[in-house]
């Protein structure tokens, strides 16, 4: 009898635990939905310029719950911009497939997926199905062998976020397909193409049309994820693809920069493999090209690296769509000795100009922040990098830190990086004179220094 009573007690306890867990889950879901509703109920209905009812999408209970973390991160109005956006992704391999997948999961309301290739093509040379794409593609399975990449993604995406309007085109980008692919005023275009001719033509078309575009460079033959960066095309280094694209854009279209790219600072760890024909002998790969200019030879790829490239692209685009200000890490080729030298020059300049260095309220670590994070290792007068690599290393030897406002001490939020001659000129002028004669420069510097003030204020809490 005692044992029977004990079993009954355990059974009741187990039942209570299960009911308690179920109740907790139910209350959590109810609370999440109520929070989402409270965020959304007072926001007016709106339609984006692409005709997607962004707010209606978020008002759906399942969608709002699926995007709860995004709404909590961005806020409802910013997520509304993401959900009302239209993004075109061209090239759906290891980079593009992951970028498109995360754009979808982030709630982008409309996607155009473009690729002329198949997920896993039937190799006409060896008469067998290649499965090599599976080490890096975002969603493809063995069952997708022979399926065009665009259609493969659309099929899988429909089960992840069916509310997204997805258009898939099995199409090669060129002059004849430009209007079909780039019309409709996309909010962003992602260039994930690995062919130089097509890549250059797409980037030039986006610049001509005034479209925001993000370019992926070489992800193959790399292994270090910590060296992946986002910067202007002019600043990319150690990447043969971006170097070739930069040269062609300047030569053929007069485009010097202004295009953000995702690239790796890491030197490639491997080269293109030799091309072997049906006989087993090395042959000329151009003899087997289905499309002129497209690579036939294979470059070794560690699957995780193109995936990270794609995730970086998606993160960059989503934050841009949400209008969240994110300061990417600058590409600055300086070492600790350079920062010590800048600190020394500042101290000597203060002593020479004011007779003392007691107003210098920054150390070497803070000089590093000012020079690298605020001014990206170049003069405050330069909007973007003119020198990269060794050229940039030489240019930093001509720089010094000076006070922006001479009436205030030399703090993190009152220092500008200038070339020697610019510093002399700056010391001879007043801020009112700069504001009147160079208002754009004055506003830009003031904005940067304000950001520094806010960032250091946050560190105090």
TrEMBL record:
> Does the keyword Cytoplasm feature in the UniProt annotation?
no
Which residues belong to any copy of the THIF-type NAD/FAD binding fold domain?
68-335
Tell me which positions the record assigns to the signal sequence.
none
Where in or outside the cell it occurs: the entry states: Mitochondrion membrane; Mitochondrion outer membrane
What broad class describes the main subcellular location of this protein?
A: mitochondrion
Alphabetically sorted, this entry's keywords are: ATP-binding, Ligase, Membrane, Mitochondrion, Mitochondrion outer membrane, Nucleotide-binding, Transmembrane, Transmembrane helix
The membrane-topology field of this record reads:
Multi-pass membrane protein
User: What does the record give as the function of this protein?
Assistant: Catalyzes the ATP-dependent dehydration of threonylcarbamoyladenosine at position 37 (t(6)A37) to form cyclic t(6)A37 (ct(6)A37) in tRNAs that read codons beginning with adenine.
One annotated Gene Ontology cellular component of this protein: plastid
Q: Which one Pfam family would you cite for this protein?
A: ThiF
Family statement: Belongs to the HesA/MoeB/ThiF family.
Lineage of source species: Eukaryota, Viridiplantae, Streptophyta, Embryophyta, Tracheophyta
What is this protein called in UniProt?
Answer: THIF-type NAD/FAD binding fold domain-containing protein
GO BP annotation list? cyclic threonylcarbamoyladenosine biosynthetic process
Q: InterPro entries given for it? A: ThiF/MoeB/HesA, ThiF_NAD_FAD-bd, Ubiquitin-activating_enz
List GO molecular-function terms, semicolon-separated. ATP binding; tRNA threonylcarbamoyladenosine dehydratase; ubiquitin-like modifier activating enzyme activity
* Sequence intervals crossing the membrane: 12-31
């Amino acid at each position: 009898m005692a044992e029977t009573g004990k079993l009954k007690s355990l059974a009741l306890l187990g039942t209570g635990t299960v009911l308690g867990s179920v109740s907790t889950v139910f209350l959590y879901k109810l609370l999440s939905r109520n929070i989402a509703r409270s965020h959304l109920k007072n926001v007016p209905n709106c339609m984006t310029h692409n005709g997607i009812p962004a707010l209606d999408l978020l008002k759906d209970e399942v969608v709002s719950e699926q995007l709860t973390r995004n709404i909590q991160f961005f806020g409802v109005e910013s997520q509304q911009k993401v959900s009302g956006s239209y993004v075109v992704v061209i090239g759906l391999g290891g980079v593009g497939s992951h970028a498109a997948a995360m754009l979808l999961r982030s709630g982008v309301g409309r996607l155009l997926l473009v690729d002329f290739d198949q997920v896993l093509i039937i190799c006409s040379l060896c008469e067998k199905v290649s499965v090599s794409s599976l080490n890096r593609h975002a969603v493809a399975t063995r069952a997708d062998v022979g399926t065009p990449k665009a259609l493969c993604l659309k099929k899988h995406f429909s089960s992840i976020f069916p509310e997204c309007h997805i258009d898939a085109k099995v199409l090669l980008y060129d002059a004849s397909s430009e209007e079909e692919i780039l019309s409709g005023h996309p909010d962003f275009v992602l260039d994930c193409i690995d062919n130089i001719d097509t890549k250059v033509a797409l980037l030039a078309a986006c610049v001509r049309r005034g479209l925001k575009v993000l370019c992926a460079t070489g992800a193959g033959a790399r292994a270090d994820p910590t060296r992946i960066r986002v910067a202007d095309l002019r600043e990319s280094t150690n990447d043969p693809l971006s170097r070739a694209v930069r040269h062609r854009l300047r030569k053929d279209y007069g485009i010097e920069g202004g295009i953000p790219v995702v690239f790796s600072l890491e030197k490639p760890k491997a080269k293109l493999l030799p091309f072997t024909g049906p006989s087993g002998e090395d042959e000329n790969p151009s003899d087997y090209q289905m499309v002129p200019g497209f690579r036939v030879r294979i470059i070794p790829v560690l699957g995780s690296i193109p995936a990270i490239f794609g995730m970086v692209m998606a993160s960059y685009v989503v934050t841009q769509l949400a209008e969240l200000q994110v300061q990417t890490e600058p590409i600055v080729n300086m070492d600790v000795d350079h920062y010590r030298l800048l600190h020394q020059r500042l101290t000597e300049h203060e002593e020479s100009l004011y007779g003392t260095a007691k107003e210098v309220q920054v150390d070497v670590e803070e000089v590093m922040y000012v020079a690298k994070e605020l001014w990206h290792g170049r003069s405050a007068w330069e909007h973007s990098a003119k020198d990269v690599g060794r050229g940039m290393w030489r240019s930093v030897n001509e720089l010094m830190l000076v006070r922006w406002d001479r009436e205030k001490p030399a703090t993190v939020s009152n220092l500008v990086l200038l070339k020697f001659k610019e510093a002399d000129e700056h010391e001879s002028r007043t801020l009112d004179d700069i504001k009147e004669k160079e208002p754009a420069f004055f506003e830009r510097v003031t904005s940067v220094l304000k950001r520094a003030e806010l960032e250091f204020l946050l560190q105090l809490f």
